[in-house]
Each structure stands twice: as structure tokens, then as C-alpha cells.
Protein 1
Amino acid sequence: MEKLVISGPTPLKGEVEISGAKNAAVAIIPATLLIEGVCKIENLPNISDVKLYCEILEHLGAKVTWLGKNTVEIDSRKINCSTAPLEITRKFRASYYLIGALLGRCGRAEVGLPGGCNLGPRPIDQHIKGFEALGAKVTVSNGNITAECEKLKANSIYMDIVSVGATMNIMLASVLAEGTTVIDNAAKEPHIVDLANFLNTMGADIRGAGTDVIKINGVEKLTGNATYSVVPDQIEAGTFMLSAIASKGDIIVKNCITKHLEPLIAKIIEIGGNVEYNEDTVHVWWSKRTTKANIKTLPYPGFPTDLQPQMGVCLAISNGTSIINESIWNSRFQYTEELNKMGANISFSGQTAVFDGVEFLYGAPVYATDLRAGAALIMAGISANGTTEIYNLSHIDRGYENIEEKFRKLGAKIERVTE
Ligand code: EPU
């Protein structure tokens, strides 16, 4: 078993380069199934979810060639199967994009019901509603989901809730459908715009991504023969920005799109952190003990749920009592129990957590309960007095490229140890 061993406290200092966005990459890779040609994708994060997805594509008949650590060439001319390897797809959440992509390409998709981080119930009713509106017959049995249709036909689809996954999945399914599909009350996250840009580069006709109405004019085929670079990961950028504050440090975060970070920048300034930024670089530094704040997680452009645990670490050591209301996921406060083992004073009930700020945290053995919880615990370990051991690293490896090396370059004393 592997664990991370961190000796703190260390004020992090220096520069860090942000990788490509995980949540864009895990939609763009299955999107290549829609292309009857070859395409090259650059700036892919080298993480386990991406590698798993490439394996699935090979199983379906695509030829996947790594041209470097972060660049892959995918040839989807010979897709010969519409049944995804069910055991692999059950391992991670983003495998649901195979349903939209395979349905669009082959008229049939069979996928194991998606697993992933345990953040509470994760229904896919809005995805199914979208596929059915396009004319597909969807059945769920024995832990698998099957969607079938001879020829998908465009429709207008109103999303009952704002869902990142459902918005992207319906985009995937409708790119090759007959007519113009309209998604109303669509999610607006940067990775939705990135998926639309990727598909348009390959020959699709998608308009309005990034607003709450997306129009997809069906085209006959996507031909590929193009290169696309994945957008920088705003959650990774935010994790390092908050690490500067939690560790009493000074970090320059490079290769990010600061427009995507505005909700976080506003909160860092509100708690007393310092931020300066231009279009693609943000400098964050600590100069005095931070103070309390109240936060409600919301779909973009609200405060992102995927930065809630990392912000929670900052609030756990800020002066005063802060409240976080988590409006996206039911079980995203499990990390607070781990932080309490490190001396934090956090209580939660349902969707609300109360952080009574303490002066400092101390090292302890803790468990990464999900991906972002894992990142938050690394931040906590770097900021805490003494030695922290973090277990359950597979969660962290799913979504952060070279995380300990990036933290080490900023001065953290962090090692991966096999027990
Ligand atoms: N929901 C439904 N029905 C649906 C779909 C979603 O009720 O059919 C609910 C969910 O239960 C949740 C809310 O709608 O309460 C939002 O879910 P959404 O569909 O937007 O989430 P997702 O697509 O499953 C993606 C990211 C998550 C991120 C959320 C919210 C990927 C692979 N995952 O999940 O990322 O938290 O959007 O921004 O893109 C992470 O990276 O750590 C992570 C969990």
C-alpha cells in the first residue's frame, strides 16, 4: 500500500505550471469516437482516468498512440464495437460519456453503470432524458446501461437541473443527429466550452457553449485531421492558489485562464489573502492570518464544489467561524472528519458545515475519501505541525498530474512511500 508522508509546516514558495483539465479531457477522449479520422490531442493531463479512457478506446477498435507524456494521437476510423469493457467503465464516473459518443457513432451503446468518487447519490436521469428525447431507447439492467436508436433525431431538451455531465453527453449524442438540437438550462463550465471547441475543430457545428442555451446543428460526419489542445485545469490552479494561503506561502500559478478563477479570487481576497493576476498567470500570497467567510457551492460561475474541500482547509485555520453550504454533492464533507483528526474544529449536518477556526493543524494519519478531499489533505499536511500520512492515494492519482512533484518544487517535504 502506498501513502504520502508529509513533514510540515512549510510555507510554499515558487512557480507552478498547470496541466490540462481532467474534466475536459475525460469528455474529449470519448468524443474522438465520433470522428471518422485521426486527431491529435495536446496538453492532456497524465492521470489514471485519462489512461483508463485510452484503454477503453483501444478495446472499441481505436488506435491510440502516445506521442509524448501529454500528447496522444487517436485514430477512430475502425471502431468495431459498441459495448464498452463493463468492468473498467464501472471504475470511474466519466465513463458515462461513452454512452453519448457510442450512440452518436454506432447507434448503440452498452456501458457499465458509472462508479467514481463517493460523493453521495449520482443519478443520470438527465442524461437518459436527453438520449430519449433524441429518439433512443434506454434500458438499465444488471448494472449496465444500454441505449439504442437507428437514427437520432434532433429535439429541444430542457434540463431540469444544471448538470455538467448531462449537458456534455447530450452534446456528444446530438453532434451527428439529424437537425438542430437545443439544450436549455445547460451547464456553463469551461470544460463544456472546451468540448464544444474540440468538436467544432473536428467538423461539428455547436453554438452557444458557455451560455445556458446550446444549439447543436447536426452534421453528416466529423472528419478530424486536426490538433487540439486541452484547456488548463481551473481546479488544479485553484488548489495551488489555496495552498499558498493555507501554507502561509507565496505562489505564482502559470498556464491558467484566470477568467475561470474569478469566484475563487474573490473569496481569497475576502478572507484577507493577496492576489494579483493577468490573463494566464495568478500570483497569490499570504501576509496575515486569514478571516472567516461563508461559501455556497454552485454551478459555474458560482464557487466550484471541486474547490470546496481545499477552501475548507483555509477556513479551518482562519480566524472566526465560517459556514460552507454544499449545494451540489450530498457527501462532500467526509474530509472534515479527517481534518478534525489534525486538530480542526469542524461540524457538519446535511449540506452545511461549520468551521470554528483554530490557530494551527497538527500532523496525523488520514484517509483521502475522494479526489478533492485528497488534495485538501495534502494542503493540510503541508501547513500542519509535524508528520501527516495520507492513505487511499488512488483517488488523488485519478485527477492530479505529478501532484507531489509539483508540491516538492514549491518546497514541500512530501514523499510517496510503499508500505
Ligand atoms: N444530477 C442529477 N441527475 C443527473 C445528473 C446530475 O440529479 O442526471 C445531479 C447530481 O446528483 C448533482 C448535480 O446534479 O447533485 C450536478 O451534477 P453534474 O451532472 O453537474 O456532475 P457530474 O457531471 O457528474 C462533474 C464533474 C465533478 C464535479 C461536477 C460539478 C466530471 C467527470 N465530473 O460531475 O467533478 O464535481 O461536475 O461541477 O466532469 C471532481 O473532479 O472531483 C468531480 C467530482
Protein 2
Amino acid sequence: MAETAPPQAETLRLFFALWPDDATRDALDRAGKWLHRRWGGRRMRADTLHITLAFLGATPVDRLDAVIACADAVAVEPYELLLDLAGYWRHNRIGWLGVSEMPPQHVELVEALNARLRAAGFPVDDRPHVPHVTLLRKTGGGEVPACRAVTWPVKDFALVKSVTESAGARYEVMRRWNLRGSRTGVDGGEG
Ligand code: 2AM
């Protein structure tokens, strides 16, 4: 007779991210196409493009309210992020678009979110935050070209669920929060 597996708490793979508006997503996708021509690898699908702010990983479903409460408490002014730097990390073979200057509001947002999550007992990463949009995976990289900057008007941030499927990870925006601290409510899709 088959043994019964011990009951395990249901978990969601979660992270907080800046999720682009349509125009920003298009511009990022074009940057991905441009970088891919130089460096090769696998382009990320346009609907996956984002900047991770805080990574939670597998989180018990019954902690979702606590995750949401952390984001509810964050109040930061909107800002613009100028993505003006292409880069490549050898250790994970990722090609990305990042920033050469960090707006103070971005630092505030990342720090406020991570501090509240940490205080609530979530095991968030304490490595320094390097804002980046992953554009290519499994790339060989190469000489870093000067790139055309993408301006991202940051007005909100999102709680995102990562669902692993045979075709790769699919990301689902669960909720968004407007900057200035007011929540916009439940959001079933991306965009
Ligand atoms: P990446 O784009 O550099 O791979 C969903 O997996 C998002 O969370 C991706 O943006 C991924 O970053 C990021 N991520 C994955 N694992 C992480 C970790 N341990 N710490 C921080 N971010 C992570």
C-alpha cells in the first residue's frame, strides 16, 4: 500500500515587482530584441518583463494577508527610473537592463518593503538590491554596448505570483499598490 505523504502547507511563489505599463513594456521588449542581436541567448517574453523589489519565494497561503499588510504600510512618492545601462552576469548568464543612477524614491520603496517583510518574519534576501530587468537568459554576453535608455514612469508596484509551467514560468499580478500609499485593489491580470 502506498504511504501517505505528510500534509504540507499550500504555498505560493511570490515576489514584489515594478510591473511595466504597456508603453514601458514595449520599450523594454525592443531593448531585449536589440540586446539579443548582439549577445544571443533566450529572450524573455514581453509579458514577463519586470523589476523585482523583494523576493519572498515559496510562501504559505495563510501568510498572504501578512504579505499584503506589509505593502499596505508602504508610502513612497512616484518617480521615474531611467534604464540606461545594459549588463551581463556571468554566474547566471543573464543579460539585463539596469540603471546608472538610483532615484531616492526607488531606494525608499525597496528598503521600506523589505524592512516590513523582514519584521513580519519573511526570509527576504539581504543582498544589496541591484535594479534590473532580465531581458535574456542563457546568453553568452559580450562587449557591453551603449544602449538607448528606457524611461519608466513608476506609479505603482505589484505583488506577483510565479507559476511554473512546462513552457517556463508564468507571472500573474495578484494586486497593485499606487505609490503614495493607496492600494488600487485586486488585479487579476497583468497590464
Ligand atoms: P532574475 O530576473 O534576476 O532571475 C522571479 O523569479 C523574479 O525574482 C525574477 O526577477 C528573479 O530575478 C527574482 N529572483 C529569483 N530568485 C531570487 C532570489 N533568491 N532573490 C532575489 N530575487 C530573486
Protein 3
Amino acid sequence: MSATILLVEDNEQNRYLATFLLEQHGFRVVSARDGHRAIESVRAFVPDLVLLDIQLPAMSGYAVALELRRIEALAATPIIAVTSHAMVGDREKALAAGCNGYIEKPINPETFVAEISGFIVPPARGVEP
Ligand code: MN
């Protein structure tokens, strides 16, 4: 079964590009264009990874990360922050909010999927009899 990624991104072009690249590599993508929709969506499924834009309307990516981390089912789900603000302290803020990693925009189509794949832990195997 392929991994499912929750893509939280308000910019349509970025959403389109990320979805295209991920689907091309066999990932399933569920997208949300703001934090409230993202939080709502994880009531219905547990993603294998969350790609989280930090510059979002209404609710910042940091706030979304904090909320997602409060959900028990997502305790082990990697959350990767994506931001165009290469500001000093962004990485620290993202990690403090519960993110596991950080990718800078613009998305590099050559390396994007490899960067994300590195954060996905393969499912645990059942105990052999
Ligand atoms: Mn944005």
C-alpha cells in the first residue's frame, strides 16, 4: 500500500506541483488549503506524513503543527514544514512546534520527493511466528 501524504498548502500552483510530483512517485495525496481543513481531515484518516506550509491564511503552520501534535493518532507522524521565509529562527520555530523537518521553497522538483521519502518510516513488520 502506498503512503498517504497530507499536503497543507494554500497556494494552488504549489499544491498542484507538489501533488503532481508525489503522485508521479506513487504517493497518495490528500490536500487541504488551510489549517482548519487539515485538522478536520485527520479525523477521517491518519496520514503517513504531513507536508505543512507555514504561511497559511487564518492559522499559521506553526499553530497547525501544535494542534496536529495534540492528536494521539498522529504522535508518530512526521510533519515537515515548508516555508519560503528563509528567516533565521524559522527552523527552530518549526521544530519547537512539533515538526520533524523543514524544506525551503521554491520546491525543487529534482530533490523534493527524495527529501520527503527520507522522513517516511517503513511500516513495522508483524512479529514472525
Ligand atoms: Mn502559503
Protein 4
Amino acid sequence: MVKQPNLENETQSLEYETVLRELKKELTPRGLKYHIESYGCQMNAHDSEKIAGLLTEMGFSAAENKEGADLLLFNTCCVREHAEKRVFGNIGALKKKKEANPGLMIGVCGCMMQQADVAPRLMRRFPFVNFVIGTNNLHELPLIMQRVLQGERPVGVSAQDKAPIVEGLPALRAPGVSASVNIMYGCDNYCSYCIVPYVRGRERSREKTAILDEVRELAQNGYSEITLLGQNVNSYCGGGAAFANLLRYVNDIDGIKRIRFMTSHPKDLSDELIEALGELPAVCCHLHLPVQSGSDAILTQMNRRYTRSHYLNLVEKLRAKKPELELTTDIIVGFPGETEQDFEDTLLLMKQVGFSAAFTFMYSPRTGTKAASLPGQIDEKTKKDRLLRLNALQEEQTRQTNQKYIGKVEEVLVEGSDNRRDTPMIYGRLSCFKMVYFPGNPDKIGQYLPVRILEAHANTLLGEMAT
Ligand code: 5AD
Ligand code: SF4
């Protein structure tokens, strides 16, 4: 049965249901296939699962690859210019394909389509695109597809800033044991470099009961590892205490063995949350806590609203509660005005904390953000040079944090198999998020197995089953 989303009024939801029914009747016998190309963060990856769920309800099925698709959908990201350029390049490359096969449907969705000037620019440059749709309008996809199938072109849905949360949209998750669940949408932080608040809109938290119902259903369907998603989960429903409470409820759900969450903002990481991290058995031994810079002057310019010493103090408190906790982070180099000394402060912070991994980025100016018009923009060469130095230090630290595990027996949740070597290997993550490869057969996928760690490589560990 089609699950009914909580659309705003009765007329809207009746229309949604009727359209879905009509589409399913029309499309199922045609055997149309879709392929989604997803860019960017985990939030986007989860949106793609929702799009796949909606398309399945409409009677589409997944193509094995993009060549076999009747509908190609690009779920875009605009956090950095690089991602945006790749999307434009990949869509442009479809021109010939569309000429050879005019029946091919091409759609573009995601954060880029929430930028006021981008959707019209994209339609002008690539008139062969059939439709565009913003992140906050995914629930309108059935109505859009109906118009596209009727031959209307191009179809666009305007992006909404204060979009309501639409519950009950079906999600087609990859089969397995690990699932992502949104707990909130949007962001109110306005870090000066970041486009997200402009494209994902104001912060909106989902109702606790809706989240818990979704997690319970996932647990009943065999998913035992849950990742709670939001741009700043620590401000869920107005504060860290509320998020800590949510963690307690999720921890108590039968069948949930591991809980992860991202992203946390250091300014909102409450004592209650640190307490919960230390106490709750299902909460994983890993925290992703983006620091962005180790210089107070740059943190102020970034509008991060914490200092270097506040961050280091948090790390101390976290490790006092949970000594084995692994920390990962995001860092931007080459923010406007960043001096060599500011950058060295970042290197020093990295050494002081000992992150087990870091996602590192060169600052990319985003039109409309405050930092894009700041004086002191840094040249590409300096940015690249700083990125290389930062990555070299992080690689060394990752290796060091990996070494600690040698000789230990740790629990791995098996995610997949790799048959490229002589011995068939399987792999999965430790609670602390480190990836472990070890000999085994794919029938173990989905199981929690004790593994003895034998070797530490640059980004992964190598082990053997300890049973
Ligand atoms: N330039 C470079 N990196 C950025 N990020 C966000 N905006 C920008 C930008 N304009 C990085 C931040 C954030 C991560 C998701 O992407 O480090 O935490
Ligand atoms: Fe962007 Fe800052 Fe919000 Fe993260 S917290 S999404 S970096 S504005």
C-alpha cells in the first residue's frame, strides 16, 4: 500500500494519491528504468534514497547502470565550486545521447536547484533537460513526472525556503544493516563561507515520534546501525539536551546496536550530550566534530562562534568521558585573510587533538555568502600548498591512530566483499568508524564479527576473524 505523506491539506494529498495511482498504472507495463547520480553529503545520499522510493511507487525500477536508464536524475551539490562544475560538465556531455535517444528523460534536483539563478541558467544552457526540482520540493516529484510524461517541457518547481517537513515519503534504502534517518533539515548558523543555509532553508526539526517510528520500522526490517542526520544535530528542537534525549530513546529501541550522528557543531555540543555519549551503549565510539580552523581570528571571520580553546576543552571533556573515542573533523584552508601563522595554528591544533581522519578542503568562494566578498582572498597556489601540508600531517596521524589497534580484537559490522585479491575478503567498520578488511565470504555481510587486527595501512586496517 502507498504510504500517505502528510501533505498540507486534504486536496493536496488526494491529488498526490491519485497521481501516484495513475502513474503506476501507466508506467508499470512500460518497464521504465531510472538512474540517480548523487553528489555531495550524506544528506544528499539519503535524499536520493527518497527519490528512488518515490520513483518505485510510480512504477519505475532501478537501472543497472546509467546506460540502461530511461530517466537520468542528477542530485546536485553546491557546497564547493568543484562539485558544481562536475554537474554542469556531466549534464553537458548528455547532449549527443539525448539527440540519439529523444525519449531519454533528464532531471536535475538537489541543492544547486535551490539557488535562485542556477536553475534558469542550467535550463538555458541545456534546453534538453526535462525538469528541475529543489531539495525542499521532493514530494512534488510525482506531479512533475506526470507533466513530463505528458510531454510538457521544461518543467520546473520553484525552491521553497520555509518548506514544511513532509513525513511519510517512501525511501528505497540499499539493502543491508545500516540506514540513515533525517532528524532535521536546514541550517541557521550562517558560517560565513557556507551556502547551505541559503539552499537548504531555515532549521526545522522532525517530530520525535516520527523519527522513533521510522527507526523502529528500520530495526524491524533488520537495520541495526542508524545514522541520524542533520546539518547541526546538536540544535535538534532547540538544544543539545533535546538531542541527548533523542539519543536515549533511539538507544532503547530493540534491535538497534549502533547509533551514529552527524554533523555536530562545537558551539552547541552540550554537557548532556557528552554525558549521553559516555553512557549509552549503542552510541558509537566516534564523533565527527568539524573544527574548520585552529586560528581564533579565522574562526571569528568564519562566524563559527567558538574559540580554539573551547574546542580543545570539548575534546578533553569528551575523552574524559569516553577515552577510546575517535574524533574526525572538517578543515578549510585558504579562508580569506588566513596568514601562514593562522594556518600553522591549524596544524598545531591537528597535532594536539590527534584526529583519526580529516576531510580537508580548499576554501571555495560561494556567491551570496559573506566570505565571498571579504578582502584577502588567498591565491590558488597557497591554498594547494597548505592543503598538501595539512593532508601530509593528517596521513601521519591516521597511521598513528591505526597502529593502536594492532593486536586488539574488535567488533566489525560487515558491509561488503572484495574479490579482487587471491583470498576473498570482506570488510566493515569498527564502532570507531575505522574500516577493516579481513578474509571471509560474502555470506557474512550484515553480521557483527570479532576481528583480530593484524596490520595498519594508510586508511584501513587488516585483520582476521577471531572466532
Ligand atoms: N569552501 C570550502 N569548504 C567548504 N565547506 C563548506 N563550505 C565550503 C566552502 N565554501 C566544507 C566545510 C563543511 C564541509 C561539509 O564542507 O568544512 O564542514
Ligand atoms: Fe554550513 Fe555552518 Fe550550517 Fe554547517 S553549520 S551547514 S558549515 S552554515
